[in-house]
Design brief:
alpha/beta, single chain, about 160 residues, about 20% strand
Length: about 160
């Protein structure tokens, strides 16, 4: 379970917006995090704190299939992403690096930037503590919870 402040984004946020291509020449996760979302939200790195939650619209993570995008999000401190839908490769890359993500149209519509939200990974329940509203996403299956809890697919296989 995580609880944090929401950073909300629109539909069709692509991987080039999440981590601009000009920063892909590094494998340093902290460096990637330092530039996360800077083209759509220049103050993101100053606003985000560890445990915060990202919320977005349709087709989040579309574009190229780079793992850098979910790595930048996770390393920036975001504990969980909620969106209406994800690009399939982004979805798999997020799970592979241990970033929990949920699809829930009602939550993405109802949650606003700055709201405080709590997410229960095992039940899929999303509580908007600011508005006193609840939403139901599909819970993370046990094997995906294992991947997330161990910090990614490779760690879960060790």
């Amino acid at each position: 379970m995580v609880k944090g402040k929401v950073h909300k984004y629109p539909d069709n946020v692509d991987t080039d917006v999440i981590i601009p291509a000009r920063y892909l020449n590094t494998a340093n996760h902290a460096e990637l995090a330092a530039h996360c979302m800077e083209d759509i939200d220049p103050n993101f790195k100053e606003k985000v704190t560890r445990g915060d939650i990202m919320v977005a619209g349709w087709n989040f993570g579309c574009g190229s299939s780079r793992e850098h995008a979910p790595i930048a999000i996770k390393e920036s401190g975001i504990a969980c992403v909620i969106a209406k839908t994800y690009a399939r490769i982004f979805y798999r890359n997020a799970i592979n690096i241990g970033l929990p993500i949920f699809e829930c149209e009602a939550a993405a519509d109802g949650i606003e930037d700055g709201d405080e939200v709590e997410v229960d990974f095992s039940s899929g329940k999303i509580n908007n503590l600011t508005k006193g509203e609840s939403y139901q996403a599909q819970p993370l299956p046990e094997f995906i919870q294992n991947i997330v809890n161990k910090g990614g697919l490779l760690n879960s296989l060790k």
